[in-house]
Amino acid sequence: MTSVEEPARPRGRTRDAARTRAEILDMATQEFARAGYDGARVDEIAARTRTTKRMIYYYFGGKEQLFTAVLERAYGVIRDAEQQLDVEHLDPVAAIRRLAELTFDHHEQHLDFIRLVSIENIHEAEHIVASEKLAAIGSPALDVIRRILAAGQESGLFTADVDAVDLHAMISSFCFFRVANRHTFGALFGRDLTDPARREHYRAMLGDMVIAYLTADRAED
Amino acid sequence: MTSVEEPARPRGRTRDAARTRAEILDMATQEFARAGYDGARVDEIAARTRTTKRMIYYYFGGKEQLFTAVLERAYGVIRDAEQQLDVEHLDPVAAIRRLAELTFDHHEQHLDFIRLVSIENIHEAEHIVASEKLAAIGSPALDVIRRILAAGQESGLFTADVDAVDLHAMISSFCFFRVANRHTFGALFGRDLTDPARREHYRAMLGDMVIAYLTADRAED
DNA sequence: GCACTAATGTACGAACCGGTACGTTAGCTA
DNA sequence: TAGCTAACGTACCGGTTCGTACATTAGTGC
């Protein structure tokens, strides 16, 4: 990728199945994220690789399967990142805040992934549903949230009656919306939600919101 | 739309520019929302109207302009609904909660609109940016939020340092995500965020979250 | 009732695009 | 080094799809 190719081999197309496959996946990710499933062009993906369209069909079978493979890899990256989570040594409040911040950062750093998820939702998650890999991918983050939540609720720190899935949805909502809808939001309300100058503001706002919700005084209930 | 057509006119195509235009717009909204911009088929839109493809080009010019017209009308509907907002007679806490609930309901009732917004974001809001109508559409809801927020902050009820745009983003995030991403979320986490049985739960959760955030004890700051 | 135009229908073209038939070669193995 | 196969390239096909040229008619104004 970093212009290291000519020196290694003078001319003749070397054969490297793994590299070719990975290169197709990389370019396909970019193209699908750029234009959506129907807007993406198989020829365009091929043109950006060092191989030809023929190889896309050779390795993946077709456009549909290629998109599924792109999704599988993208979700795999997320899952791997979630497995690195290390927040359980913190007290529940700090742990949840840290988790929210990491989710925030992750969304910001994986713009292509956010687009792929939006696109997949337009297609009603049909590729995910049909994928065996994605059916069983699980979510390490959910387990982490579950344990922190249990600790916080047991100690009486957390008053809210939520489970891990709902809390995950709450955190993801804000992170996802901020990135995915920044174009229409910016155009209509004149505010760029991803302006670096406001990044810390929104990151703190998310943490404040989640903690306020979890620890709110619920005397009135 | 309710099978009232044959009795009125026996056969010959009656001419009604307004009706034809509106019918095209209706079907285009459905088709674009169903399949995305590139996935939508002009022929399919035409087939669902009582007129022909020719009329789409006659009235709108092309696919691109048709999509812009669809967006313009969809956003117009939202704006009109927002102008009906009547919550300022309530105290700030109740007013914000009510506003959040109305936003929640509105998202749930306009699934096509949510999809169109997702699609427009994939295209980086290019149609909105290019539309004069949408550039000047404004947001009545923002003004309402601004006033409630000012009242709440002045009285000391609201401790959070947010402005109307950010609060609107917070509320919209949850409402939008719940509907727009329900397919991938459901497939991956096994929970249907739009299950009617959980509707009240999420509606209350949103209100709780926003109010908790706005009124949180910020002694530690 | 005549003329004019807005509104509508038909038929078709040309480019695009996913997919494939067919041929070739690098590199490993025996 | 001969032979075999995974890996690759070229050229092309056929259906799809946006868009339009051309013909027609309903309704309106005079």
UniProtKB/TrEMBL annotation, chains A, B:
**HTH tetR-type domain spans which residues?**
18-78
Q: What are the UniProt keywords, alphabetically?
A: DNA-binding
What the entry lists under SUPFAM superfamilies is as follows: Homeodomain-like (SSF46689), Tetracyclin repressor-like, C-terminal domain (SSF48498)
Annotated region of DNA binding: 41-60
Mind telling me which PROSITE patterns this protein's record contains? HTH_TETR_2
| One Pfam family hit | TetR_N
| InterPro entries in the cross-refs | Homeodomain-like_sf, HTH-type_TetR-like_transc_reg, HTH_TetR, NicS_C, Tet_transcr_reg_TetR-rel_C_sf
Query: PANTHER family from the xrefs?
Result: HTH-TYPE TRANSCRIPTIONAL REPRESSOR SCO4008, TRANSCRIPTIONAL REPRESSOR
Know the name of this protein? TetR family transcriptional regulator
